[in-house]
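Tokens in:
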């Protein structure tokens, strides 16, 4: 299956795109760089001690390779991970030998929050490309919650946003056709990558095979290829290997009928007062 294979390391420069706007796949992000904690910092809700505690979750970096399985579903839940570099995905193995991808994690995301409170993993997790992760334990998380209300608010908000992305996936997977699904998928990634500085003039690296995109969207590899061609012909997407350009991001959003409420950077008033 795809997750047991070693994918080629992300090639950043692609012929046909501008020389001065190529991207770097090895974006390194800390939790302080993420949407939620930037919002808390703007509200002056994070003290120096809070920031030190949060960065303490990232003190055990480990370099991991493309295709490496971080954990399997139904194994004991004993740790969480911060993605420092690279892309990661969670997935469920199906009885017919295929896999359903549930979520793609980008630098700055925490993996494993959906497993919180469960004795066993709800899904398997694998590296998409080479990267760096930093693991931390339940004990570290509970100590963080006990020391800082603001950090507890931040982690809870991150978990809620992850769940919101899964809910949005259910909506467009169930109600949209292939080109709307792919348009939604690409525009969501575009917004998420832009927030961590991984988009330059509408261009970004997409280190995913057509099979992986299909496993995320419920489409065959052939259907993914045809749909990319359709979006290209409409002037909405240009793709060469693992490099994507969106000439008209707003047009892509309109096609997908994209509602970005679930990606809102702001925190609710209740959260702000609690922090």
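Residues out:
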């Amino acid at each position: 299956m795809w997750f047991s294979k070693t994918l080629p390391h992300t090639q950043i420069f692609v012929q046909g795109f501008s020389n001065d706007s190529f991207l770097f796949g090895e974006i390194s992000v800390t939790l302080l760089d993420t949407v939620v904690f930037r919002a808390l910092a703007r509200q002056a809700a994070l003290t120096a001690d809070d920031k030190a505690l949060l960065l303490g979750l990232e003190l055990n970096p480990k370099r991991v390779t493309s295709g490496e399985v971080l954990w399997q579903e139904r194994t004991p839940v004993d740790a969480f991970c911060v993605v420092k570099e690279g892309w990661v995905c969670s997935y469920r193995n199906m009885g017919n030998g295929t896999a359903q991808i549930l979520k793609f994690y980008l630098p700055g995301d925490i993996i494993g929050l959906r497993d919180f409170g469960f004795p066993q993993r709800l899904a398997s997790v694998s590296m998409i490309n080479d990267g760096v992760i930093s693991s931390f334990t339940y004990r570290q998380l509970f100590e963080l919650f006990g020391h800082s209300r603001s950090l507890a608010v931040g982690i809870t908000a991150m978990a809620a946003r992850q769940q919101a992305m899964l809910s949005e996936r259910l909506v467009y997977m169930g109600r949209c056709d292939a080109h709307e699904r792919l348009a939604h998928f690409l525009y969501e990634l575009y917004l998420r990558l832009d927030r961590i500085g991984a988009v330059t003039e509408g261009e970004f690296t997409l280190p995913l095979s057509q099979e992986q995109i299909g496993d995320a969207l419920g489409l065959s590899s052939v259907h993914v290829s045809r749909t990319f061609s359709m979006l290209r012909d409409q002037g909405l997407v240009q793709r060469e290997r693992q490099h994507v350009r969106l000439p008209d991001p707003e047009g892509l959003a309109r096609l997908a009928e994209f509602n970005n409420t679930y990606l809102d950077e702001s925190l609710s008033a209740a959260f702000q007062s609690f922090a």
